[in-house]
Design brief:
Radius of gyration: 16 Å
Largest sheet: 5 strands, parallel
Structural class: alpha/beta
Oligomer: single chain
Helix content: 25-40%
Order of helices and strands: HEEHHEHEEEEHEE
Number of helices: 5
Strand content: 25-35%
Strand order of the largest sheet: 4-3-7-8-9
């Protein structure tokens, strides 16, 4: 992962003060995604991180995690599994309710989405407090996969979301923001 290319991507992040509530500095990654070079850099960097990990399924967290989750699944020769809000998946699901920065939420996954033979890469765009991905990890681990990896494009390190994940789960992010 070439540091200069990742810094280019990071420079494309738009920061929006007081969104969605006063006191929050929102990191908007849609400005990164609309830039073709940033998309190529992120795809290449993510594939490089996981190409030798024998990933069989990529779990994308609704909704922005679907974008690179699907790109990664295709590039790694893996299946893609969407993790969705309640009522969006058509077959039998399992669900988890959790607390996040601005309230409570629930996520669901098809009960047959992951098998004990799977090596799973879980992906979302941004790690803040970690509540959503921690709930997602709980759901995936109930299916007993061989191994789980977690990845984010961006991490807000001051919020310490990484601390929610067990030590045996490798967590990576392409870049981070500190003190902002």
């Amino acid at each position: 992962m070439e540091k200069e290319r990742i810094e280019y991507v990071k420079s494309k992040v738009r920061s929006i003060p007081d969104f969605p509530i006063k006191g929050i500095l929102f990191r908007d990654l849609t400005t990164v995604m609309k830039d073709a070079e940033s998309m190529r850099v992120m795809r290449d960097a993510l594939v490089e991180l996981y190409k030798d990990k024998s990933i069989t399924k990529v779990v994308g967290v609704e909704a922005r995690g679907f974008i690179f989750g699907a790109i990664l699944a295709e590039a790694l020769g893996a299946g893609f599994v969407p993790l969705r809000k309640p009522g969006k998946l058509p077959a039998k699901t399992i669900k988890k309710t959790y607390t996040k920065e601005y309230g409570e939420d629930t996520i669901e996954i098809h009960e047959d989405a992951i098998t004990p033979d799977d090596v799973v890469l879980m992906h979302d765009d941004l790690l803040a407090t970690g509540g959503t991905m921690a709930a997602a990890l709980d759901l995936v681990q109930t299916m007993n996969p061989k191994k789980v990896y977690i990845n984010f494009i961006c991490e807000l390190v001051d919020l310490k979301g990484r601390n929610l994940f067990p030590a045996d789960v490798e967590v990576t992010s392409l870049f981070d923001f500190e003190g902002e």
